[in-house]
């Protein structure tokens, strides 16, 4: 046993250095992300089925609700890990417990879409959050100046979990209203916890972690593009359309990656206020990326005549997520370090993508608009501005 460990072979969970050089994602964090691949994939698949069957409002509502559970659990662990991560057995076990909660949540996603039954999702979510309470309480013993913040996190999360349990005895209509109220309660916990006592989050580490989660979501879009090729092998009648869709969506996905990872992105977090903006707006960025993959699948259904949606509506299931993704990431990570040209081209390009379905040759122009945004980012260097 080394002097830095206890008799239980635990490492004191001291605050990490927010300026620690060379800070990168750990293998445990990457392992943690893997279970979210499952949850995101199930949520996107259910959204695809709901949209194709023309259950648009119900599908979007269900997707928004379950995606919040996925995103918020991932985000809370990410911000905790950037401040207090250790690598002893207890930290690993509690992280794996959270992973088990993600898998339970993923198993409950389909009943939410089909029967508006939140039982399994709520149970899986609470498993993740209770493990997170344990992490915050453990950190509080050695958090130093951040002790009050850690205790507020633990207390706030615990209170909101009790609220979530009440949804199990609510009627369907009341659950939807309660969901919005309890989401606001969840979102308020970090604001209250860090109002006077802050945790030592590492800005570059946070942006890297968000980037890695974005790659997971864009991977779903690549899979959806590949599915167009797979279907083309069997749907000879629509071979050309499916291959064209696959190529165009690959171009769009690559453009989304390029836009997201514009070099100044890693400097997007410079204050607590900006960290809140960055973290919370990413819900829409992440949800749009997941919905984009579902939209590609819907468009495949449209080409092969396996959906009840019109061609125009099917096109919008692709273009709306693209536009939301671009506008969201421009707002939180690009505009502060971009010149006037970039700050015109990017949002205007997103709006043009929204108009693309109204033009006789949809998607081809979307790919062109996205490529033009990328070219602009390449030609216009970032502008250094004060925080």
TrEMBL record:
Residues 1-23 are annotated as: Disordered. The keyword Transmembrane applies. It comes from the Bacteria. The chain crosses the membrane at residues 30-48, 60-77, 89-109, 118-137, 149-167, 174-192, 212-230, 242-260, 280-300, 312-333, 359-379. Keywords: Membrane, Transmembrane, Transmembrane helix. The keyword Membrane applies. This is Low temperature requirement protein LtrA. It comes from Kribbella pratensis. The lineage of its organism: Bacteria, Bacillati, Actinomycetota, Actinomycetes, Propionibacteriales.
